[in-house]
Amino acid sequence: MFKQLRKANQNDYLLITATLILLVVFNLSLLSYVQGQQKAAERDQTGFTRTLKGEIKNALTLSTTLKELVLASDGKVDNFSTVAKDLLAENTAASNLQLAPKGKVTEIYPLKRK
Question: Which residues pair with 109 in a beta bridge?
């Protein structure tokens, strides 16, 4: 009778050991998955930040270029549509450009949304 009890206890120990091993493997897998999701979220956030910085830089470049254009031509730009078209083709930060010397809008390109 004691031999049977000892054999039953050994089987129980094997079952408990196998269960613990499975729990450890499951927890490690879950931890790995969660860390992977966190890293992916960080990469997405970093990419968004980089894109936002690029868009801001493009917008500032457009503003600076228009400022120099207005200052060089004393507020009157004869070929504004051509210049604005070229600037918008190079920089996707803006959908239109306005020329507003002294705060009064005198030119808009394009007049209608495409």
Answer: 97
